[in-house]
Amino acid sequence: MAMSICVGATPSISSLASEMWGGINRARYVSGVNASPRCASTTKQGVPLQVASALKDLQVVQDRKVKSELVRIGVLGASGYTGSEIVRLLATHPAFAVTVMTADRKAGQSLASVFPHLITQDLPNMVAVKDADFSEVDAIFCCLPHGTTQEIIASLPRSLKVVDLSADFRLKDIAQYEKWYNGAHRAPELQEEAVYGLTELHRDEVRSARLVANPGCYPTTIQLPLVPLLQAGLISKDGIIIDAKSGVSGAGRSAKEANLYTEIAEGMKSYGITNHRHVPEIEQGLTQAVGSQVTISFTPHLIPMSRGMQSTIYMQMVNGVTVDDLRAHLKSKFEDEEFVVVLPKGVVPCTAHVRGSNYCLLNVFEDRIPGRAIVVSVIDNLVKGASGQALQNMNLMMGWPETSGLLQQPMFP
């Protein structure tokens, strides 16, 4: 639909509404799950909310005169998993085009030589960061490892919008960064400017930001359900236990003995017990939600699959609150969100049902211990946990519909 707007005559909004509504009825499409609560909700004019949201996006596209609004994108660290995932997602974006890609160790090579699945894309060769021409760029996705990002972003032209996928600007307290990442922060003035980009919770700040710190994957699965519940006073800030599991791609693409096939296959292992670097990021978000210190128990695990992430979260409800209250609050909070879906009662989220997509599926269950509840939250760690959320943020920063380039449905099987 979006591509037809770019290359041909623009259809009327009314004709698009008819076509989309009919298509939804035929396909019985409901945001990646086999249920209809979101389509059941309508505007005052009786238009399904999903259609109304899509039409609003189309109107924005028309108003901005797509043909003259090409956004030139630079991808720093294009030879890594998150960099290549950015390029994959941008293949369906109506206005973002990659004009610069960097990869110091792969400088001079094509991206297709590193990632053959992207051979159909018309892309520039990768160059070293020092040789990149940023006069040909409007916005940057920085996909470099933590610790290498600060000085590079500080050296970029101030005119560029930047989404940083590393951890370098996520922690507001510089001392916390130095403690957990074992080194001094080399761009503290930028840390003051950076906006934390958990899109559904910080949309307004992201929209006006120049530099966005893209959240970590584990913190995304955890904060999306916990922040609304804590803000509403429905659960206790004490006694939160998080058992999280990630596919191997979360460890990055560099060669590591611990990530070899024979080390990972046919088993599961815990890592970062009591000292995982996402702990301060999670606690920062939860503490901001309640206005006082929140301390969690968090243990991540590596499981033998390429992508996918699940966080199983155990919590104490406040007196008089039920699991149905928790679920109703989350459903209300995310009812109009495209990418966060509260599943029907009793349906268990599964990583296989978000694979390759920007969706987060979650649900609430009653624990056998009275007064306690369990939330299960799943994402694709490379999409909603990294590159997809980065694109979601960049869309907002550049004034484009938030869902642009991100409506790919999950891949199954």
Question: Could you walk me through the main structural features you see in this protein, from its secondary elements to its overall organization?
Answer:
With 413 residues, the protein is an alpha/beta fold. Among the domains are: 2-66, no CATH class; 218-381, Dihydrodipicolinate Reductase, domain 2, CATH 3.30.360. The protein is built from 15 helices and 14 strands. The chain has helices at residues 2-7, 13-27, 37-40, 49-63, 81-90, 111-114, 150-155, 174-181, 188-193, 199-207, 217-231, 261-264, 279-290, 323-334, 383-397, and strands at residues 71-76, 96-102, 126-127, 139-142, 161-164, 195-196, 211-213, 241-246, 269-270, 297-302, 309-316, 340-342, 360-366, 372-379. The strands form 2 sheets. A 7-stranded parallel β-sheet has the order 3-2-1-4-5-7-6. Strand 2 (96-102), helix 6 and strand 3 form a beta-alpha-beta unit. Helix 5 (81-90) packs across helix 15, helix 10 (199-207) runs parallel beside helix 15 and helix 11 runs parallel beside helix 13. The protein starts with a helix and ends in a 16-residue tail after the last helix. The relative contact order is 0.14. The model is unreliable at 1-40 (pLDDT under 50).
